[in-house]
Write a structure and sequence with these properties.
The structure holds two protein chains of two kinds.
Chain A lengths: L2 H11 L5 H4 L12 H5 L3 H9 L4 E3 L3 E4 L3 E4 L3 E7 L4 E7 L7 E10 L2 E7 L8 E6 L2 E6 L4 E4 L5
Parallel strand pairs in A: 1-9, 3-10
Antiparallel strand pairs in A: 2-4, 4-7, 5-6, 5-8, 8-9
Chain B lengths: L3 E7 L2 E7 L23 E8 L2 E8 L8 E6 L7 E8 L4 E7 L2
Antiparallel strand pairs in B: 1-2, 2-5, 3-4, 3-6, 6-7
The chains are: A alpha+beta, B mainly beta.
Chain lengths: ~150, ~100
């Protein structure tokens, strides 16, 4: 492996990368994982821990793609499409899970994005997305997803 | 290099799909034989970078399924560019992967 390539890979592996020194985009450090938000037990607490006490605006610009019935709560494929400008952060929550916050996506000032992943769901629940875009906090919830076998252990 | 990753241009945006290998233990499960709780062990952060610029960061909780799959769109990079993905879990283990945009 060439030295330059090796350095680049090393920078990627250490997670900090060259982004810290270049300063072109909002820079994060590893310490930024929002522990407090992941520990909360309600959607509202998680929202407050992430985005502060600001008011949530209901919107239909956020759409969900998820199954009606999830036979196995351990693997539920979901995706969210957000049609807003200057999206800063997308948080996905499952209100009925022991800890509702599933994941957050921190974007670099983008518009019209879709994100997808596979999540665990403890029991039948809708999905809630909370999106920070253009300095405002938007929210939307999906229809209920029926879970026949829970996926949160126990 | 255990993150499998694909990236392609779609409507001027880069569509990235990634698959990681990880147990993603929630910390809520118990060992079926001993009854001891299995400690939480899950990925906390995945970062997508292009030329050192951070494009997207995903903070994952334990409620992401085992062997996480992630798809997202980002803008900026062009076809032929390489994007890097790196992950770190709550025990400090890191992983990475990269893909050339088609």
């Amino acid at each position: 492996m060439k030295r330059r390539e090796f350095n680049r890979k090393l920078a990627t592996i250490t997670g900090l990368g060259v982004g810290v020194t270049s300063g072109l985009l909002p820079v994060s450090t590893l310490a930024s994982w929002p522990t407090a938000a992941f520990d909360t037990e309600t959607v509202n607490d998680a929202k407050n821990a992430l985005f502060g006490e600001s008011e949530m605006i209901e919107t239909d610009a956020i759409t969900f793609k998820a199954p009606d019935i999830a036979e196995n709560g351990r693997v539920v494929p979901v995706s969210i499409n957000v049609g807003l400008n200057n999206i800063q952060e997308i948080a996905l929550m499952v209100p009925e899970n022991p800890a509702p916050l599933v994941t957050t996506f921190v974007m670099s000032d983008q518009s019209n994005v879709s994100v997808g992943t596979r999540i665990k769901m403890g029991k039948t629940s809708p999905l809630v997305a909370v999106v920070k875009a253009d300095g405002k906090v938007y929210t939307a919830s999906s229809k209920e997803i029926k879970v026949t076998i829970g996926g949160c252990g126990g | 290099m255990a993150i499998k990753c694909k990236a392609k241009m779609k409507d001027g945006m880069v569509e990235v799909k990634a698959l990681m290998k990880h147990a993603m233990e929630t910390g809520l499960r118990k060992d079926s034989k001993t009854g001891e709780p299995i400690p939480a062990h899950h990925i906390t952060e995945i970062t997508c970078t292009h030329n050192g610029n951070e494009l997207l960061r995903c903070n994952m909780g334990p409620a992401i399924s085992k062997n996480p799959y992630l798809s997202f769109t980002v803008s900026g990079p062009k076809a032929g560019d390489t994007i890097q993905l790196s992950s770190i879990d709550n025990m400090g283990e890191t992983d990475s992967g990269e893909a050339v945009i088609k």
